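dumping this here before i forget
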Amino acid sequence: MKKDFGDSISNKVYEYRVLARMSQQELAKQVGVSKQTIFVMEKGNYVPSMLLAFRIADFFDVDVNDVFTYSKGDDQNE
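structure:
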């Protein structure tokens, strides 16, 4: 059985996209994914691959840690 560590990744894709005055479709085209992928990522329902995370950060010319934040969960089930 797969262990759930409770870790999470949040993102600021929506904030960066709005500041750039872009639609979800425009951003999706620039980073090579569908509009739906951007939509679910902004809603927090999708964690992108590392490659996609770096593409997005590179597109906005920021560090990947400025867009994506890793939060370690409580691992008290050991």
